[in-house]
Amino acid sequence: MPKLDRYLFTEFTQSFLAALMVLLVVSLGGVLVDVLGDVADGKVPAGLLLSQLGLATVSYLPLILSLALMLGLMLAIARMYRDSEMPVLASIGVGPRRMLRPLLMLVVPIVALVGLISLWAGPLASRTSQDMIAHANRSLIVSGLAPGKFTVLHNGGVVYVGGMSADGRDLSKVFMQRQQDDRLDVVTAKTGKMYFEGETSRFLQLRDGFRVEGPAGAGKDFRLMRYASNEVALPDRQDSKADDDPELLPTSQLLDDPRSQANAQLHARITPPLLCLAFALLALPLARSAPRQSRYGRVMLGFLGYLVAFLMMINGTQWLAKDKLPPMLGLWWLSLPLLVLAVWAYGRDGRMLRRRGARA
User: Fold this and answer.
1) Could you give the 3-state DSSP secondary structure of residue 234?
2) Residue 18 DSSP symbol
3) Could you tell me the CA-to-CA distances from 140 to 41, 70, 143 in Å, in that order?
4) 246: Cβ–Cβ under 8 A, 6 or more apart, which residues?
5) CA–CA separation, 161 vs 239, rounded Å?
6) What gap in Å lies between CA 72 and CA 64, rounded to an integer?
7) What residue ranges are annotated as transmembrane (predicted)?
């Protein structure tokens, strides 16, 4: 590899990795807040926190990688303009066409990775997440209950289970304590069983036990009741998507699916790698600046452009799903013009640099 190509490739890669690290930290923080909210609401078992965090992050990787690539390239090229490296390169005949090879050495693998995640890994992560939550909702083991241990529930209650079946649905020697306002409720049972009602409701049926209810303070107004069966409501399960939901189907199945929702989801998976390529090519003309001009104004312009394109992709997907756009049009009206604009702007920037180099 020529020294110039190696130098440019190193600059582009280092800047891309730095932008990627920052975006990953910011994105992980947002995803973690969402997952913790579901855990606090009892929709996702606490034992699945890390796995759900990782699977949710995979779905956001096409957006993160594309944005990190564009910002990394813009920062690297803007630094070269600021340090007068680009005018020097232009004066010796090195323009965007000569820089295309080291640029594509980084861009092509990233675009391929974005396409792989968008078309295959992202839907697989969504299906895996859905299956894990559905399996956990059928078992109290994954919900955090374990035989011989006191467990604090999300609503502040305390549960003790003496024994549990292998599938986590049948219990024995159950103790539960709950406090609502100034009332204390203690329930014991010899056996218990979890069952479902409807799509999301879960209940714990306790058999042959006692219930003590009274004031949480120093009062003496306690009531002791013996019951043969007592039902306790558990946190509702997270609404599960149908098995034929387009968001969960593999891309190969979407090709033969006549539904408008499937067509919208197909184009939503095809568009991210095309946008990634378009904005990577736009990075060089967008980053062009005077030697001592601030490089962050152009970066903000590129970020806003990417944000607008991403929002248009989301809106276009919704329009396709609601038959507000012709199915054949898809999202090509967004990706193809951006690609044409990127190629034109890249070539135009090269002609401008050659003219500047000739005058120098």
Assistant:
1) strand
2) H
3) 16, 45, 5
4) 254, 257, 259, 261, 262, 264, 265, 266
5) 27
6) 12
7) 12-33, 53-78, 99-121, 299-321, 327-346
